[in-house]
Amino acid sequence: MVNLNINSPALSEVTIFISDLHLCASRPQITEAFLNFLTTQAKSAHALYILGDLFEYWAGDDDIDNEFNKQIIQGFEALAASGVSIYLMHGNRDFLITDEFCRAAGIHLISDPTLINLHGSTVLLSHGDELCTDDIAYQQFRLQVRNKQWKSEFLNQPLQARKNQIEAIRVRSEQEKSSKSAQIMDVNQDAVVSLLKQYHYPDLLIHGHTHRPNQHQLPVDGKLITRWVLGDWYEQGSYLVCDASGCRNVNLINH
Fold first, then answer.
1. DSSP secondary-structure letter at 181?
2. Helical packing angle, 136-145 and 148-155, nearest 10°
3. Which of 8, 115, 118, 200 has the smallest CB count inside 10 Å?
4. Contact indicator for 187, 131 with CB cutoff of 8 Å
5. Which residues partner with 21 through β-bridges?
């Protein structure tokens, strides 16, 4: 949990937030849309924040020479070279991204959660999966795979072996989702309130993970806090753009 001291951009500049792109070679239309986004909308921003699950999965930084991954890295590298600051937060699919990928892409890795100042407003950023406390099985799995020893042992295996294991976990996860209620896979309101209190009632909370883009107004101890939920990029693309006038959701792709 980090308070990131980032100076608020000039009043005319915008900051963009995205999450849950789940980029993979099997969905080329989304990859094309994202790379186009990096050369158009994102290029006009002061900063771009990616709040987790950039990739469908990430098996380790020794995979950066993969042709698919290279084109994503090159897209980020060009955006960073144009002067846009890029920040990446781990999600539940890409928490194995480390410094080697970030250096190659010109990205700054930030902790979950991170508190920033934006045009005088305090904004708390999170991927959001840690707030889904009703899904007890997932939280137990999350605790296991975020363990330092587990990650070290996993990354010591050959790359293809890691990919095979991840694919098996993904298949099992999709099967388990079919038996879980929508409520269990959403954020727990008590967990959200607890986080907001811990960070002294920020003006905004922005997160992804649940794939339920929306704006919520949440009263907490006499304060009204706005919670923005970012959308996924499985079949559509969207991003949150914030400037001195406020925040608004923009749909990029519609099917």
1. -
2. 60
3. 200
4. yes
5. none
Taking residue 55's Cβ as centre, other Cβ atoms within 10 Å add up to 20
d(C-alpha 188, C-alpha 190), whole Å: 6
Structural domains for the chain? 2-251 (3.60.21.10)
Q: Which two tokens stand for residue 197?
A: 């209190």
pLDDT tens profile 71-122? 999 999 999 999 999 999 999 999 999 999 999 999 999 999 999 999 999 9
Read off φ and ψ for residue 204, nearest 5 degrees: -135, 145
Looking at beta carbons, which pairs linking 135-140 to residues 24 or more positions away fall under 8 Å? 135/180, 135/184, 135/185, 137/176
**Residue-wise pLDDT tens digits, 132-164:** 999 999 999 999 999 999 999 999 999 999 999
- How far is 74 from 89, CA to CA, in rounded Å? 19
Phi, psi of 195 (to 5 degrees): -65, -40
Assigned token pair, 252:
């990029």
Query: Can you list the positions of beta strands (E) in the chain?
Result: 2-3, 15-18, 47-51, 85-89, 108-110, 114-118, 121-126, 204-207, 214-220, 223-229, 238-243, 246-251
